[in-house]
Write a structure and sequence with these properties.
By secondary structure, the protein is an all-alpha fold. It is 76% helix and 0% strand. The chain has one domain.
Length: 82
C-alpha cells in the first residue's frame, strides 16, 4: 500500500540521516535538519488523496534519497582514497 511505502521511505530517510553528523554554519547538525525537513514534507502531504500524486511524491522522494546517498558515498570514498 502507499501508506506502507510512505513509512518505508520515511524510515529510510531517518536511517540515512545518521550519516550526516557535521554541523552547518549555524551550528545545527545536518542530521537534525534532514529529519525536520522530512517531517515537514511528509506532514504537508499527509492528507493527499490523489493516488497519482501520492505515487509521484513517493517516487520523487525515493529518487532524491537515492541521489543524496550516492553523492554522499562517492564523496566519502574520495576522502578515504585521499
Amino acid at each position: 500500500t502507499t501508506r506502507r511505502e510512505a513509512l518505508s521511505l520515511y524510515r529510510a530517510v531517518w536511517r540515512a540521516s545518521f550519516l550526516f553528523v557535521w554541523k552547518n554554519e549555524k551550528g545545527e547538525e545536518w542530521r537534525d535538519i534532514i529529519r525536520e525537513s522530512a517531517r515537514k514534507e511528509f506532514e504537508a502531504a499527509r492528507h493527499e488523496k490523489d493516488p497519482e500524486m501520492i505515487t509521484r511524491l513517493l517516487v520523487t522522494g525515493r529518487d532524491y534519497l537515492d541521489q543524496a546517498m550516492e553523492k554522499f558515498m562517492t564523496k566519502r570514498q574520495s576522502i578515504i582514497d585521499g
